[in-house]
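Hi support team,

I submitted a single chain yesterday and got back a structure, but I'm not sure I'm reading the token output correctly. Could someone confirm the output below corresponds to the sequence I sent? I've pasted both exactly as they appear in my results page.

Thanks,
R.
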Amino acid sequence: MGFSNSRVLKTKPFAALVALSAIFAACGGPAAKNGTIASPIADLPAVRLNYRYEADVPAPQLPVSAAEEKNAAVQADFDQNRPGESLDRTITSPDKKHVLAVYRAAADQASEYRLDIYAPDGKLERKISSDSMAVHFPDAISWAPNSAKAAFVAMTRRAAPTPSPSPGASPGTVKSTHPEASPTASPEPTVEATPPPETQPVAGTTPEAPKGILTFGTEQIYVCEADGTGVKPITQTEGLIYFYYDWAPDSSMVAALAITSREWEYFDGLAAMKGESWTPVGRLRVVETNGRERRLDDNLTAVRPVFSPDSTKVVTAFDTQIRIYDVVGTTPTQSAIPLRNQLLLSSQAFDREQQLKLKGQDANANANPAPTPTPDLSTTTLPDPKILVSFNPIVQVEWPQPELIYFRTAFIKRMQNDADSVTSFARWHRLILSGQPTAAQQK
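Hi R., thanks for writing in. Yes, this is the structure output for that exact sequence:
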């Protein structure tokens, strides 16, 4: 149940906006604070944002999150001192002072992991996960941008399944022991007893697994301090599976997706019947590191949310609609930007261009054409979406600059056999944001 990210460039208008931002800052514009990018639209509520749509632009220039090679010193410690455990990966904090070790013990199930904190030189500093805790979704484990905390998803470690058939099952059928596999299961949170003071680890000895950590029957989000102390769940909703989250640039909160265990089983089962691999969907919420949580939308989406560079807003997508949410302030708002008509017209233009190229009538076309102008919807007849091969839903959003939201449309079909999976007609578009004029400016 791991996940992958695709990051990918820039355009002349994009470079111009960056230059204008620099001039604005030099002229006394809002400065960056708390490590985030300040913006003239930062203080505007989402409902007061205007946008301009540009179709078929080059992909945004984003940091490439290459897979980190295992820390050699940590691997050496596992090889020499931990022969019964296998190191899966290491994740170094942005300030390079700490390393998370993601590993499994010999008896652990394939999808269940453990976490320890190491010094970069390979010295084990502290165990993070308790013996009763199973870390899930290892690809989601991440450090806060300021390196002060790390976050991961975990639940109560389940016992290894026994090959005893359930009543009435066919011979050879094994009943699942995962709590969410049963639609009526509602496991109670589990807390390990905290050891008395005399059993606490002594300085200079090998750290022991922590105790007294609350765990649940479904996956919750946990955080810990940079040194591995203070492990706690910041979500505590039994029955919900939190499978994805993204840190705010100022490290104050995460934007997460969650779905009920019953829904997970239902959608996953439907996909399996078709031989497909289900892409998890969830309901968007923000969760502060102190545990305060607010659901932003009741609709399900597979598009991973991202924060604005100033940490004041979150964006995601539903089919052909972009939604922006305020995540700070006492009266948060949200803005829905319907893009179906614009996408239909730009897809029509895109399909025609591709047909011309196939016929050899556009041999001198620029390899990187300028963004397609926004059509005048008042004088244009909308095409039939059934005949447009490039008209597809939004599958990814990115917010690399305060006034620029990029989004990618594509046809994606994930099969259980990866070789049969398909991604086609991937196209990048963008929204250029601005503030609505105030009443004084309109006079």
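A quick pointer for reading it: Confidence is low (pLDDT under 50) at residues 1-33, 163-186, 193-203. Let us know if anything else looks off.

Best,
Support desk
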